[in-house]
Give the backbone structure.
Amino acid sequence: MTERSEKPFFSIITVTLNPGTQLTDTVLSVLNQSFQDFEIIIKDGGSSDNSLNSLPSDVRIKTITNSDDGIYDAMNQAVKHASGDYILFLNAGDSFISGDVLLKIASLTGEKKPALIYSDYLKGSNKSLIRSPEKLTSSYLMRTMICHQVCYFKKSCFDSFGGINLRYKVAADYEFLIRIIVKFKQDSLYYPYPTINYRGGGYSIKNMNQSLEEVKMIRRQYFSPIRLFFFYAWYLLTFPKQRQYVIEKYNLDFYYKISNFIKSGGKSR
């Protein structure tokens, strides 16, 4: 058991609205960590399902209940109450894959703490392994992002470079990641193992059309027209609509394996 310090090492943030029993499951996943130097911040938008009353009693759990303008505004509000060195956003229903995740992540920080530590994750009820890239290059981030539930950001990123941009209603986490890594060139460190069971079905998935439009806006904000021209030309040559149809109808796990292979550069890890 790691002793708690006056200022916690991790701030684990969950934003909720009528999450049901999934909130308790997520909180217990945090409380069961062997590394105990953390705080849990729950930003609730006014749940009426008794989920907050079902939480375990622990002094490290902070509950903030007030109105907000959506998930990203709720995240920004929660960050203002966070005092940890690193911040992790977990949705209700997500969980750590084991009891030593925070211990392993904390051990990676060293004297020069990277702005971002990120990892692989397991997705959905099938627990499909989704690998993240070994390096977060601008070329990779122009194409896609990584799951924000595996992004352990330094709190100073929010203090120095601004919070989540509320201009974007669905893809603001994508913009924040690009802002930190591409615009402000902060360092990142990849932990090549899964740390989170990601339930899936997030807000951006449920609002896919709006998400795609916002992603295009974000790309125009951070990447030059010539880079975007070649990117979209390459993208069209990969038959995206046909790929998506095959993925959804036939074999998603096979697609994940191919994607993991490409991200790893053909190396097993």
In short: The radius of gyration is 19 Å. The first strand starts at residue 10 and ends at 16. Residues 34 and 97 are 13 Å apart (CA to CA).
